[in-house]
Specification:
The structure is a homodimer. In chain A, strands 1-3-2 form a three-stranded antiparallel β-sheet. Chain A starts with 8 loop residues before the first helix and ends with a helix. Chain A has a domain at 44-130: Arc Repressor Mutant, subunit A, CATH 1.10.10. Chain A is mainly alpha-helical. Chain A has helices at 9-12, 36-49, 52-62, 71-78, 82-94, 113-127, and strands at residues 68-70, 98-103, 106-111. The interface between A and B is large, with 65 and 70 residues. The structure holds a DNA duplex.
DNA sequence: TAGCTGCATCGATAGTTGTCAATATCCCGA
DNA sequence: TCGGGATATTGACAACTATCGATGCAGCTA
């Protein structure tokens, strides 16, 4: 899929070749930019958002009365079973995007706005060509 | 993946079940917050970022000379095989985070800053209880 | 107290993903 | 034209994930 890179056109426009640095694999001049552990931690947060149903859950909670909602409100619109919704909510809580508060029999979930803002900052800051 | 995005078609036209317990389960006003297809599209972008090695690739490309790098530069620091790196890069290109330019034998990848900025905006705007 | 209700946890299973080895393809230099 | 190197593609396999049904637990209510 999408593998057509037009193998003929671009190469013909190439001049003579670079003067000296004809070698491609120059040593990584700067620094590894993003460490392995930091990448794992960041990927874990993205992984929590990498599911359509979890995104909808997050959105529905944010759209609630006081930016909170209980499980029974969320189960039906998604068309998922209650255990599945509970599972997704747990993942979002573990990732720091939601908080859980049990009031009586019901469990109310609310968003953590700083978490999303922090992630957005990391997106544009660390990865957006600004090291 | 095994995600069923709720077979109910238009994502919001739920028949509004009769509220038996007036305490908790009140259907959220009627605004669907995030549609099913929008959630799928957004999740696809997050999924591309939900891997540590892909995040490091993105970061390394962004930290390159002109915010670009070729495959051979990226293979070694990651400790992955060349096909694997190529696979990850393809995923990032398909998600719109990178662009590929073939110069001679080498393939240079560069970041698409608007993609990250756009995603960051969506994060704080659509999900961050701002509506 | 007993029963009921909302939610979490526990296996089990189908589908997806990350990785590698092998191979194909493309391009440059001799 | 041929050989070599850089990259992409294919096939296979292990690991992970999303989902469900069954079950357990806690708190309200009669």
């Amino acid at each position: 899929m999408a593998e057509t890179i037009s193998p003929t056109a671009p190469t013909a426009a190439l001049p003579m070749a670079e003067p000296e640095s004809a070698e491609c694999c120059v040593p990584p001049a700067g620094r590894p930019s993003l460490g392995a552990e930091a990448a794992v931690a960041l990927a874990a947060r993205f992984k929590a958002l990498a599911d359509p149903n979890r995104l909808r859950l997050l959105s529905m909670v944010a759209a609630g009365e006081d930016a909170e909602a209980c499980v029974c409100d969320l189960t039906e619109p998604l068309g998922l079973g209650q255990p599945t919704v509970s599972h997704h909510l747990k993942i979002l809580v573990d990732a720091g995007f939601l908080t859980r508060e049990k009031r009586g029999v019901w469990a109310y979930y609310s968003v953590v706005p700083e978490a999303l803002g922090d992630l957005a900052t990391t997106l544009t800051g660390q990865l957006g060509s600004a090291r």
